[in-house]
């Protein structure tokens, strides 16, 4: 798929129209699925309440099976929510923004979760960065998805470094973790929709990140190898 920054205004408008059409269709389909899914979940909850009072081995077996179905329903709902986030990236609400301020606000938000997982956050923010045009809510989603990706790569804790700087007329943000890293196969497919190496993963986190960054006229690349951590670099037009 072409980067929006490489398109002329007419092509960009056509691409955004396609995004909007896909988002509308996806939203309608997701709601059609979520409504019966909510009904199923509600009835499962009632069954769990009834069976929780039972003490027979049969009741215990049924309760365990129903709780398994509940987990799968929650998993399906998570996938639907992630897909909606992915599909809805189209027309952006862009405002002039200070990238360093965005990163600082995100660090304050994410720090409690990082501490819970024994992850040290290490910001190195460049001075006098030019402003960038950002949809602040969507870019916050980019930071969160990348941080969660690093968190999953740091099962025993470690460090997540966030760097900002200017190079070649663009504003850059690096997120560097000391995690398990990725092999060449994973690197080649990590931005593919629905590709995931994690049990229960939706395979939409990194594709959503890429789609949001490119919708801002930016680029995202990664450098990683097994046992040596991962660096994601986001480049945004100043």
What's this entry about, in short?
The protein is α+β, with helices and mostly antiparallel strands and 238 residues long. It contains six helices and seven strands; from the N terminus they run ααβαββαββααββ.
Main sheet characteristics: 5 strands, mixed
Structural class: alpha+beta
* Beta-strand fraction estimate: 15-25%
N to C succession of SSEs: HHEHEEHEEHHEE
- Unreliable spans: 1-5
Q: Which oligomeric state applies?
A: single chain
What spatial order of strands do you see in the largest sheet? 2-4-5-7-6
What's the number of domains?
2
Number of strands: 7
User: Could you please say which CATH topology of the largest domain applies here?
Assistant: Heat Shock Protein 90
Report the CATH architecture of the largest domain.
2-Layer Sandwich
Terminal CA distance reads: 23 Å
The value of Rg in angstroms is 21 Å
Describe this structure in words.
The protein is α+β, with helices and mostly antiparallel strands and 238 residues long. The protein has two domains: 4-87, Signal transduction histidine kinase, dimerisation/phosphotransfer (DHp) domain (Helix Hairpins, Orthogonal Bundle), CATH 1.10.287; 95-237, Histidine kinase-like ATPase, C-terminal domain (Heat Shock Protein 90, 2-Layer Sandwich). The chain is built from six helices and seven strands, in the order ααβαββαββααββ. The strands form two sheets. A five-stranded mixed β-sheet has the order 2-4-5-7-6, covered by helices on one side. Strands 1-3 form a two-stranded antiparallel ribbon. α2 packs parallel to α6 (205-215), α3 (99-116) packs parallel to α4 and α4 runs antiparallel to α6. The model is unreliable at 1-5 (pLDDT under 50).
